[in-house]
Target: Metallo-beta-lactamase domain-containing protein
Amino acid sequence: MASKLFPGDPEKVLVIRDIPNTPITTLSVPFLRFGRIKFGGRATLVKLQTGDVAVFSPVALTSAVKAKVNALGPIKYIIAPDVEHHLLVETWAKEYPEAELFGPEGLPEKHPGLKFSHVYTAKVRTDMPTTAEFDKEFSSEYFPMHPNKELVFYHRPTRTMIEADLLFNLPATEQFSKSGVDPKSGLLTKLFGGIMNTRGDMVWQKRFLWYAASKGDRAGFAESVKKIKSSWDVERIIPCHGDVIETGGKAIFDKAMAWFYQKY
Model:
């Protein structure tokens, strides 16, 4: 199954992009959910003001990725943003053994050979303290009720939200741009892409958030999204699946979460 999920030679299809006027680099690759649905995958590198680098949702550690990391600075933080986006954490941890690992509760058990320095739990859902340099630049919100136990981060200096499975922005155009494959092709991709996008009123993604993502604790989910609404001035959203939302991120987030604002 893994061979169907990830590209056989990720080096050939990897898209490395520096976001202008920011210390952020995205690493975008093709990714097939269930071996069929064209989700796309994305890691995000952020160079902190101290010179250290954080990687969110690591992708394949190719020679091009290593070269980019070497040019940016030492990897200090490796962040698995939920219990699904962790398959390559061990590869990165072995390459950068001095890095501190972040992840939600339940993830350390999947990697008994790794030491997680910062494990997010429901006890502190908002801005769990980590290190001084990381907390100086990042805010965080933990969604333990989400089926994937989502961690969402906000890079305050660039007004950028970094997230995994909280919001999708399909089609995954950039992520499949070097693959020679149409990111909209295939019946299942068409069906899922019609739901998990940010176009129009987003009614289908709203339904997914309401009936699936938040079903474990809808009131708690609403509390978290309302905290984000009130305290994060989001301009850009970098999702793991689908294209980066370069501008107007706050309006799109508010549109997606409108039912929670209205009903709680």
About this structure: The radius of gyration is 17 Å. The chain is about 30% helix and 25% strand. The CA atoms of residues 37 and 189 lie 5 Å apart. The longest strand covers residues 41-47.
